Amino acid sequence: MKVLLVDDEKHVRDAIRLLVDWKHYGIDTILEASDGEAAVALVGSEHPEIIMTDMMMPGMNGVKLLEWLHRFAPDAKTIVISGHDDFSLLRHTVKFGGTDYILKPIDPDQLNEALDKAIQTWLKDEEQRHANRELNIEVNQFKPIYWDKLLSALIAEPNTYEPVADQLERELHLSRHVTTCRVAILSLDTMEASIKNKFSQNMDLLLFSLINICNEFLVPPQRGYAFRHLHNSNEIVLFLWSEPSQAEELLATINDGIRTALHARVDFGIGREHSFPSQLKLSYQEARDALRQRNLKSKETWIHTNWLPAKVTPQTLTFHQFEEQIYLALRSGNVEQIQEIVQLWIDAIRSCEVITPEQLEHWWGEYRVMMRRWVQQLLPNSREEEIHPLLLEDSVATIITLDEKGILSLSLWQQELTRSLVQLSKLHLESQHKGNNVIFEIASFLEKHYHEDISLADIASRFYLSREYISRKFKQEFEVNLSDYLGQIRMSKAKVLLCNPNLRISQVAEMVGYQDEKYFSKVFKKMSGMTPNEYRKTANSI
């Protein structure tokens, strides 16, 4: 902590130095000034927390210094040490933030008491300033989320504007006098491959970077604002309310900035100028349609509008035309046959003069419906977690892949289709093999009868096999012995039952095949690392 002594008489400054145990108060730096001008210079460079000043000095006196400190160093605490018992000076001290007024000759006790009071006041204020800084940091972290939510709602509900109009004008410079606006959309679903690959592990960082770049061009000149659309997490929406007729040129400039920062360009869809805020949704829908209806086979522009005439893809080509051929290839298990039929499909798409994102989504929707039907037919007993990777649910992100020039590349889509179909065919063959394998029949029996008292001898008798053979083959197929496999099934079922607080531990034990609660608890802890009660508490707290 620093203190500044301001007095034109050096012996007074020396006396103050001697009358205070500075270390006791945590003060490690004592500065001196002989007049107000010198004090101002030191305050500007050293920022002392405590200032002790005389009132009557040549040049800039204490009265003027107090006024300057009140304006330019309001956090500092000031103690006046004066030889004049003048009420007007005392009133001036109080008016401009002085914490105490001490008369000369200086009383040591009064000086130390005033210093202690000033320090405690400064510490209390600093604690509040720190709390305010922390609060401001927290508020600033949540502000983008707040604006994302508010502006996303404004698209769908124009009546949400009036309650926040003043705040929008104050913080985003969206004047109440704005009567029209255009909406533009930047979609991550339709970005170049290079930028997608660069941020593949952190798409939130990509969104953050793109929004910041957009707002560098929008916010300072007060031309608009970019935000993340909460109802479509892969969309960045731009409200453009200043000079709407020049919005296309502005988006082109923003795209140049993205190119400079991220070495890639993006596609913007933009709607027409409509009334604000009542017709924001209309402009937004036009922008969205512009992106969905653009031709991915050519790159004539990065800024797309939906009110210009465009060629429409004929609706004659459908994925259903290839369904029977693909299904036969799946049942055959022949990888080359699967690759050939996928190639036929891709060639058919390439022959289309126009391919839009909307058309790709339609084809992809057809494929997903057929894939689910094939899975049900070929893998009737499969679990959802096993088949989910085959379904390629993230449709748009998977199918709309652009090359470095922003033109559609079907190669990745072809690879993904082939991979998922080959995997389904492989699982189908394995399923057939498992159906004919007695060891898998035994595993299926355990799955259904885990709650019964089952021994290896019982299994051997039921399936007319020796215990040794069953033990050996079971361990080869599942890499665990039969008893451990049965225990895993029971513990898995027990964990589900333990999530029900109405079931006693003894009931859970009995339901999964253990008559002895203590033995059940012992086995459960061995296999899961915690007791049934501990697991129940952990599971119910999540």
Please describe the structure with a list of short key phrases separated by commas or semicolons.
single chain; 542 residues; alpha/beta; 6-stranded mixed sheet; 23 helices; flat; DNA-binding; phosphoprotein; Sig_transdc_resp-reg_receiver; Two-component system response regulator YesN; transcription
How is this structure best summarized?
This protein has 542 residues and is of the alpha/beta class. Helices cover 58% and strands 10% of the residues. β7 (224-228) and β8 form a beta hairpin.
Describe this entry's structure for a reader.
The chain is α/β, with parallel strands linked by helices and 542 residues long. The chain contains 23 helices and eleven strands. The chain has helices at residues 10-19, 36-46, 62-72, 87-95, 108-156, 165-172, 193-198, 203-218, 247-262, 280-292, 323-332, 335-350, 357-378, 384-391, 395-399, 411-435, 438-449, 456-463, 467-478, 482-498, 505-511, 517-528, 532-541, and strands at 2-6, 29-33, 50-53, 77-82, 98-103, 180-187, 224-228, 235-240, 268-270, 274-275, 303-305. Strands 6, 7, 8, 9, 10 and 11 form a six-stranded mixed β-sheet that branches. β1 (2-6), α1 (10-19) and β2 (29-33) form a beta-alpha-beta unit. The protein is flat and about 115 Å long. The two termini are 48 Å apart. Residues 308-314 have low confidence and may be disordered. It comes from Paenibacillus qinlingensis. This is Two-component system response regulator YesN. Residues 440-538 form the HTH araC/xylS-type domain. It holds the Pfam family GGDEF_2. Residues 2-119 form the Response regulatory domain.
